[in-house]
Design the sequence.
């Protein structure tokens, strides 16, 4: 077995048993990156020297008998997390020169627990996209291929497309992502991975480049539910530097994965269907229901009546918050500057030159819906519909312990598809957006393949701060699905 | 509420994004499509519903109003496109 094929849990045991060293493990991944990244474009930057230093430190710590949870485990970091002394671009031209003088809370916790950082991963510009096609640094190739057409370049999903492609192709054992409307779960579904969007407030947003602050959730990617739980445990916890960070104890997520689900009530919401959704996604969903029933869960038909308004609500609230958050990119304190005739001209030229078309479009929508005369009609109304979407979840969670839905209305599509009409691209997030609006935890688990041989995910949603139940349900799905197919492009493949 | 090019230009000014006429025309079309699609929210009865500002399932915490950070101008200025001494520099604002 190749070192790059190990799960995090297996690698942790192997390192502790001295079967191989952290240096061996890191080198195996750096070599895989060297071989495949020129094609996949999953990493924007690779930190060879830093990764090797961290691996050597991990070996020294292992020799002293230390057992930190991620000691010597090589990870990829989405380029939205500020990493001290390492360029952080958010996939944007405007941050091309930006080298943060500080470390985000989530990445500093991963480092505290002994992780090795291989590099920073590609993403849609400022996390605005569902295909990784809006990155200033070029698209990412999904390592999965259609069975009958191995040449088509498919998207890995987005916005955390580089992280998903890296973990799927065995160029990292796990990765960080962020999920504002589905940016962890949709790429996890497209790349055959487990992706977790925890409860809002579980993982600190401090040091994560802001897109829409009330919707942004850091979370992990991994190849198994257990690995995702290990990463989530390290990333979680109260942070005084983020005022929305929850001061709530972090349970043992890894132990929670093994909990039996006998007697749990799982809701199946009738609204999680869309026009043109392939029949095989509906079939897989029913299969998931059957798996949970066999494991002893009680299945309950439920309704979340405002689901279909989630996307339109999101496309007011997210751009509104983005237009405010992205006001900081003015060419004065950091990032790109384009000089002009006066200060205002400098701002306008810097922002025209530094932001790509999708980011400009969203800033424009956000500015419009917040502007005098339109605020009540758009922004205030969207906030009220958001309240109704949260109420749907609150009421349904009085009847059930978790919800099962499809993750995305399609499998991975080809690069260039859905580019002509922004709304077509937005529809990718139909099933993932409601959990962001409500702040409830949700995860995508690979559950099957479509007729083209591409992975499809199922989504488990749970009550606020009950990731433990969510992970237990996810692990039952994972075991029942027995998802063992590997992507075409992978280390040693 | 269709957006005309003049409105798009006004929003671009508010957003501080320089935009040529071709982009104004393209964006007017795209924004109208998106805003037209968003109109579906008018179907929802929101009578008596309080707006929800965030997803946090808890009250915001307060902390003591004291200085907890700072005192490193070189780190703050390390990414400045232009600086004079310990200050960010910009083109002259007042004649």
Sequence:
């Amino acid at each position: 077995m190749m070192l790059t094929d190990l799960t995090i849990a297996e690698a942790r045991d192997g390192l502790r048993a001295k079967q191989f060293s952290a240096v061996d493990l890191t080198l195996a991944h750096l070599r895989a990156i060297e071989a495949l990244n020129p094609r996949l474009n999953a990493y924007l930057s690779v930190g060879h020297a830093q990764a090797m230093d961290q691996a050597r430190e991990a070996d020294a710590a292992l020799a002293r008998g230390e057992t930190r949870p991620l000691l010597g485990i090589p990870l990829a970091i989405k380029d939205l997390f500020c990493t001290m002394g390492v360029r952080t671009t958010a996939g944007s031209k405007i941050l091309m020169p930006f080298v943060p003088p500080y470390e985000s809370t989530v990445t500093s916790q991963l480092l505290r627990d002994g992780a090795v950082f291989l590099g920073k991963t590609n993403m849609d510009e400022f996390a605005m996209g569902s295909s990784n096609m809006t990155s200033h640094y070029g698209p990412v190739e999904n390592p999965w291929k259609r069975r009958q057409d191995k040449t088509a370049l498919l998207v890995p999903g987005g916005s955390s497309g580089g992280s998903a492609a890296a973990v799927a192709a065995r160029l990292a054992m796990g990765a960080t992502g962020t999920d504002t409307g589905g940016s962890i779960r949709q790429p996890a579904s497209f790349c055959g991975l487990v992706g977790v969007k925890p409860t809002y407030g579980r993982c600190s947003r401090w040091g994560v480049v802001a897109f829409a602050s009330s919707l942004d959730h850091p979370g992990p990617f991994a190849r198994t539910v257990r690995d995702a739980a290990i990463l989530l445990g390290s990333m979680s916890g109260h942070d005084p530097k983020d005022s929305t960070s929850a001061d709530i104890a972090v349970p043992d997520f890894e132990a929670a994965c093994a909990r039996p689900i006998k007697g749990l009530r799982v809701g199946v919401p009738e609204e999680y269907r869309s026009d043109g959704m392939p029949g095989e996604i509906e079939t897989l969903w029913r299969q998931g229901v059957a798996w949970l029933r066999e494991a002893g869960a009680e299945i309950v038909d439920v309704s979340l009546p405002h689901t279909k308004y989630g996307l339109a609500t999101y496309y007011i609230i997210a751009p509104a918050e983005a237009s405010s958050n992205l006001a900081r990119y003015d060419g004065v304190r950091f990032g790109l500057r384009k000089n002009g005739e006066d200060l205002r001209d400098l701002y306008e030229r810097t922002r025209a030159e530094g932001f790509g078309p999708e980011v400009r479009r969203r800033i424009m929508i956000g500015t419009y819906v917040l502007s005098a005369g339109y605020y009540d009609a758009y922004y205030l109304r969207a906030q009220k519909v958001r309240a109704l979407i949260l109420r749907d979840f609150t009421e349904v969670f009085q009847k059930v312990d978790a919800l099962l839905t499809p993750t995305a209305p399609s499998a991975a599509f080809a690069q260039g598809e859905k580019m002509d009409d922004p709304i077509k691209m937005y529809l990718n997030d139909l099933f993932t957006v409601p959990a962001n609006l409500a702040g409830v935890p949700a995860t995508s688990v690979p559950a099957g393949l479509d007729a083209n041989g591409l992975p499809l995910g199922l989504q488990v949603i749970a009550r606020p701060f009950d990731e433990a139940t969510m992970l237990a349900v996810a692990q039952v799905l994972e075991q029942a699905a027995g998802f063992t197919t590997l992507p075409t492009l992978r280390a040693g493949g | 509420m269709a957006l005309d090019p003049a409105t798009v230009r006004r929003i671009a000014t508010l957003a501080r994004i320089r935009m040529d006429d071709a982009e104004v025309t393209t964006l007017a079309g795209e924004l109208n499509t998106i805003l037209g699609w968003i109109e579906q929210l008018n179907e929802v009865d929101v009578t008596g519903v309080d707006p929800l500002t965030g997803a946090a399932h808890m009250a915001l915490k307060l902390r003591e109003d004291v200085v907890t950070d700072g005192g490193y101008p070189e780190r703050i200025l390390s990414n400045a496109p232009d600086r004079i001494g310990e200050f960010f520099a910009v083109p002259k604002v007042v004649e």
